[in-house]
Amino acid sequence: MFVYNYIYMCLYIGIFLYFQWIGAAMPDILPQLNMWVSYAFLLWGTYTAGRIIVDCIVLNSKGQMTAVHVRNGILLALMHFLPTFLMSVFMLKEGFK
What we know:
- Helices cover 85% and strands 0% of the residues.
- The protein has three helices and no strands.
- Helix 1 runs parallel beside helix 3 and helix 2 runs antiparallel to helix 3.
- The protein is rod-shaped, with a radius of gyration of 18 Å.
- It starts with a helix and ends with a helix.
- The mean pLDDT is 92.
């Protein structure tokens, strides 16, 4: 997932730099598109990490997963979500206006 977010971030920054290079203003739709796509990546990442965490907890309650493996599964889900979160927050905060 973060690979798609990284590709999007690079393309958007490239488009921003292109408009800076030619000295033209970016179209008004691009910052709005950036906002919606960044929020979509945040929702997608939250959903996948949340699904993994819930699955770990459910498997622990059924006795199919030990507490150590639940902890490792939750840490893995959070570490998988962290790059997506950081890139999306960067794209939302920076704005590229």
